[in-house]
Write a structure and sequence with these properties.
This protein is mainly alpha-helical and 77 residues long. Helix content is 83%, strand content 0%. The chain has a domain of 49 residues.
Length: 77
Protein backbone atom coordinates (compact mmCIF):
# COMPACT_ATOMS: atom_id res chain seq x y z
CA UNK A 1 0.00 0.00 0.00
CA UNK A 2 1.52 3.30 -1.02
CA UNK A 3 1.06 6.61 0.74
CA UNK A 4 -0.87 9.34 -1.06
CA UNK A 5 1.25 12.05 -2.63
CA UNK A 6 1.16 15.36 -0.82
CA UNK A 7 0.95 18.70 -2.54
CA UNK A 8 3.94 21.06 -2.21
CA UNK A 9 1.92 23.21 0.22
CA UNK A 10 1.15 20.18 2.41
CA UNK A 11 4.81 19.12 2.30
CA UNK A 12 5.89 22.59 3.42
CA UNK A 13 3.38 22.65 6.28
CA UNK A 14 4.47 19.19 7.37
CA UNK A 15 8.13 20.24 7.38
CA UNK A 16 7.36 23.38 9.38
CA UNK A 17 5.32 21.36 11.90
CA UNK A 18 8.14 18.82 12.35
CA UNK A 19 10.75 21.56 12.72
CA UNK A 20 8.67 23.33 15.36
CA UNK A 21 8.09 20.10 17.27
CA UNK A 22 11.75 19.09 17.44
CA UNK A 23 13.08 22.58 18.13
CA UNK A 24 10.56 22.80 20.97
CA UNK A 25 12.00 19.60 22.40
CA UNK A 26 15.50 21.08 22.22
CA UNK A 27 14.36 24.20 24.07
CA UNK A 28 12.68 22.00 26.68
CA UNK A 29 15.99 20.25 27.36
CA UNK A 30 17.85 23.56 27.48
CA UNK A 31 15.31 25.05 29.90
CA UNK A 32 15.59 22.03 32.22
CA UNK A 33 19.39 22.30 32.28
CA UNK A 34 19.29 26.04 32.97
CA UNK A 35 16.71 25.55 35.72
CA UNK A 36 19.00 22.99 37.37
CA UNK A 37 21.97 25.35 37.19
CA UNK A 38 20.18 28.41 38.56
CA UNK A 39 18.29 26.59 41.33
CA UNK A 40 21.45 24.69 42.26
CA UNK A 41 23.57 27.84 42.38
CA UNK A 42 20.96 29.55 44.53
CA UNK A 43 20.96 26.60 46.96
CA UNK A 44 24.76 26.50 47.02
CA UNK A 45 24.94 30.20 47.88
CA UNK A 46 22.16 29.91 50.43
CA UNK A 47 23.92 27.04 52.23
CA UNK A 48 27.37 28.62 51.92
CA UNK A 49 28.88 25.64 50.14
CA UNK A 50 32.37 25.94 48.68
CA UNK A 51 31.76 23.45 45.88
CA UNK A 52 28.75 23.66 43.54
CA UNK A 53 27.30 20.31 44.60
CA UNK A 54 23.67 21.35 44.30
CA UNK A 55 24.23 23.01 40.93
CA UNK A 56 25.86 19.92 39.44
CA UNK A 57 23.43 17.47 41.05
CA UNK A 58 20.29 19.34 40.05
CA UNK A 59 21.55 19.98 36.53
CA UNK A 60 22.17 16.27 36.01
CA UNK A 61 18.87 15.33 37.66
CA UNK A 62 16.86 17.82 35.60
CA UNK A 63 18.62 16.73 32.42
CA UNK A 64 17.85 13.05 33.06
CA UNK A 65 14.22 13.89 33.86
CA UNK A 66 13.92 16.00 30.71
CA UNK A 67 15.48 13.30 28.53
CA UNK A 68 13.06 10.76 29.98
CA UNK A 69 10.13 13.08 29.26
CA UNK A 70 11.37 13.59 25.68
CA UNK A 71 11.76 9.83 25.26
CA UNK A 72 8.17 9.26 26.45
CA UNK A 73 6.95 12.01 24.13
CA UNK A 74 8.69 10.43 21.14
CA UNK A 75 7.27 7.00 21.95
CA UNK A 76 3.72 8.39 21.73
CA UNK A 77 4.24 9.34 18.08
Amino acid sequence: MSLPKLSPEENRKSAIRATAKYSGMAFQLLAACLAGVFIGRWLDERMGMERPLWAVSLTVLFMIASLYALYRQLLKE
